[in-house]
Structure formats: structure tokens, C-alpha cells
Amino acid sequence: MIQGLMNYGALTTKAKALYGKRLRLADYTRMAALHAPEEVAEYLRGCPAWAAAARRLPPGSYIGRIELERALWQQFRADYLSLCHYLPRRDRALMEFPVLLHEQRIILFALRQLQSGRPFPAPPSTGLGSLNWKALYACTDLDGLIAAADKTIFAPALRRLRPAEGGLPDYTRTEVLLHSVYFSHMYRVIHRNYTGETERVLLRSYGEQIDLMNLMHILRLKAFFPQVRDYLPLLFPFNYRLRPEKIQALCAAPDMAAVLSLLSDTPYAKAFAKADVSQLEDYYSRAFYAFNRRLLTGGPPSVCSAVAYLNLKELELQTLVGVVEAVKYGVPCDLSMARLIGA
């Protein structure tokens, strides 16, 4: 405990201080009642967690969803760098995780754009990592995307996905493979650099993410693609509390009801007790939030505090982007996540 306080006391204090500035439910409610992204940006200028991001958008200039989201990601970058200032050298590889996740999301976004044939808008950049953004904006085919990602951990996987007949790879298989590359990389980092309680907590964090994501995939396939028989290529080849034999039984179940019945003796039974396929992302986000909040607010000083804060910050960013989109298009705003994370 004393060693942890010496090494990570300042880092944990900084993470908790940043978390204390988070948006509250009242903020989300007020923003949801606004009429344009410009008004949301103006409101954020008075919110400590996002004021610097909003100030990057000059009053009177055009502010759309894309412009505002870019500014929000720059604020995420600033928080990330402020935590890295207190980071011991051995933890730097672990703390690359949000950069790697962002690269993965942007690569998948680029693939969707290529498959749709739509113009390629500039995605929000953190300015971190190994992705060649200039090459990414200019890419028009898979070779261009591979070139843009050449220095990332995802490049070898993208090369393996190149179809022999040319064209673009299957999106779902690409998504599964890139996620698997990310998780494999993080597991190597954890096993190489950590032992004891820190290793246990980190393995639980990643293990539960994988279990929940595999469960969501299985339930979606049962609901929307009942004709699919071979599920395993569409799942992540890792497990934590769901052993391989349980995964195989879930895949073999005839329908969603049978899947939920098989979950009754697992730690995830409560989370999926009232599973609605339209709310699977919500179940995942709630479980992810609860774990990281406990880790940040109740755990001892460690690198896990910074990991938990960045996970919570990204959930806040995603919820805020959802509010901006609702305001932009004049549709009712779903504040269910805001009620949870804005407590």
C-alpha cells in the first residue's frame, strides 16, 4: 500500500480530480433542451471538464457535430497527456490503450466509408499514435488503408485480410480480428509488466469486456441471423469467466431464450436477466461503467486509477456526442446513460 502510494499517489489524485469535474445529469438535461450544436458548445464553455474544448471553437464560427466532436477528442487527449505526466516508465505501454482503441475505431470507420462509397470526412483525431492521418484522408481502397495503418499494431492483420480476388474484406470479420489483435497486445503488456493485485484487476477488466462482447455477439446472431451456424469465427478467441465449453453451449443454443437460460449459473446472469436485444449496448456500457467507477473511487492507488478514469471519460464523451447528435437533428435525446454516469 505504501509503495503504491509513493508510486501512484499523484496519478490517482489527478485522476480523481479530473473525474470530479465530470458532467452531471442536470448538464445533460439542459443541453438536450438546446436547439443547435453551437448552443451546446456555448454551454460547455461553462463546464470545467470541457471548457477548454469548447474554447477551441470560436464564437460565431460554424460549429456542427463533426467540429464539436473533434474538439471533444482534443480535450480527451489533453486529459490523457496530463495523466501521463505522472506515469512511471513501466506503465507507458499499458497507457497506450486509448490510443490503440482510437486507431482501431478509425480504421473500421475508414473501411465502412470505403464499402459505402461515400466521401471520406475527416474523422476526429487525437493527434497521438502511429496512424498516418494524411494517408488515411487520401485513401481510396484497401491498399491505401493498409498504407495509412502501416506503423500500427493492426497492419499485419489488415494485410492478412486482403481478399485474393481483390476488393474489400468482410467488415464483421475485420472487426473481430482487429479487436483480437488489440486484446492480444494488451494481454502481452499485462503479463509482461504486472504481477499481484494490479495484474488481477487488469485481467478482470479486459476479461469481463471480452466476455460481455462475446455474449452480445451471440445474442445478436440468435436474434437477427438465426441461419448462422458457425459462430466461433465471429467471436473473440479469449475467455475469462465464460469457459470454452460454456461458449460452445451458448453458440449451440437454439434461440435467445435458451442462451439466457444457460447464463443463469454465470456471473453475468443478473446483467442479462431482462435482456432486450435492442439494449445490449446499454447493458455492456452499464457493466463497464460500474466496474471502472468502483476501480477509480474505491481502489488503492495504482495505474488502474488512470485506466479507469480514461474509460469513464470516453463513456462521457460518447454520451455527450449522443446529445449533440440529438440536438442537431431535433430528435428526443435518450438520457439513460446520462442518468448513470452523471450521478
UniProtKB/TrEMBL annotation:
It holds the Pfam family vATP-synt_AC39. One of its GO terms (molecular function) is proton-transporting ATPase activity, rotational mechanism. It comes from Candidatus Flavonifractor intestinipullorum. The lineage of its organism: Bacteria, Bacillati, Bacillota, Clostridia, Eubacteriales. It comes from the Bacteria. This is V-type ATPase subunit. Keywords: Ion transport, Transport. Belongs to the V-ATPase V0D/AC39 subunit family. The keyword Membrane does not apply. SUPFAM superfamilies: V-type ATP synthase subunit C.
